[in-house]
Amino acid sequence: MLLLGIDTATRRVGVVLASEAGLLGRVELGGPDDGSRPRHAEALAPAIRYLCDETDVKLSHLSAVAVGTGPGMFTGLRVGVTTAKVLALALRVPVIPIPSLDLLAYPLRYSRTLVVPAIDARRSEVYFAIYRPVPGGVQRESDYQLGSPDDVAGEIAARGEETLLCGDGALRFAAEFHELDRVELAGAAHAAPSLSALAELAVARYEREDFTSAADVVPLYLRRSDAEIAWEQREG
């Protein structure tokens, strides 16, 4: 089997190809760090083409398409999820949706601490969830949430356990989290959802036939977009 994975929840555009034998290749394109708009729509299709060319894989050979469903950047998520759905419909293959916070937490499954991934949600907020390492992976112990750094810090402090923070949201608000006892930051290597995790988890789910049709895949939004809020304000 061959599987294409896409994650565009953050400023990064990530694409991966994998089979039951493991990772075949991946492309990661970092977004601009000057505050300008990320170019997910312009970068994703060329990244897929380049990866397929370099690995000598034809899209017609794919068995499934996996996609990180967020939460994350509204535009990025729409681009990634829509692309995954269009490809799956055209190729008549299933989609494997995986929340992007899961993809941040999974690579830290060998730690002996709580794992808290945080994705930058802008407006001085983050998307986050709390995970506990278990044999073979991580187990989520909270809902997917939207909150301020203080909200995250409060939940961590209430648990009173050693905690490992990861994600671009953790890096952005590192100063706030450094004040917490028994908390460490995973660093820049764990800033974006892991493409290796996307490939590994998606292949395992495909083998269990744990997938869905393209029509049933939706991004995981935890709040309304800036455009929706602006429209409501104008109408009000």
Q: What amount of the residues lies in strands?
A: 25-35%
Q: What sort of overall outline do the alpha carbons produce when their principal axes are compared? A: globular
What does the average pLDDT come to? 92
Overall CATH class of the largest domain: Alpha Beta
* CATH-assigned fold name of the largest domain: Nucleotidyltransferase, domain 5
Just name the CATH architecture of the largest domain: 2-Layer Sandwich
Note poorly predicted spans: 227-231
Name the CATH superfamily assignment of the largest domain: ATPase, nucleotide binding domain
State the major sheet: 5 strands, mixed
Give the H and E element order.
Answer: EEEHEHEHEEEEEHEHHEHH
Helicity range: 25-40%
**How would you classify the quaternary structure?**
single chain
Question: Strand tally, please?
Answer: 12
Structural class: alpha/beta
Largest beta sheet: strand ordering: 3-2-1-4-5
Description of the molecule:
35% of the residues lie in helices and 26% in strands. The protein is of the alpha/beta class and 236 residues long. The chain has 2 domains: 2-99 and 193-235, Nucleotidyltransferase, domain 5 (2-Layer Sandwich); 101-190, Nucleotidyltransferase, domain 5. The strands form 3 sheets. A 5-stranded mixed beta sheet has the order 3-2-1-4-5, sandwiched between helices. The protein has a 5-stranded mixed beta sheet with strand order 10-7-6-11-12. The longest helix has 18 residues, at 74-91. The chain is globular, with a radius of gyration of 18 Å.
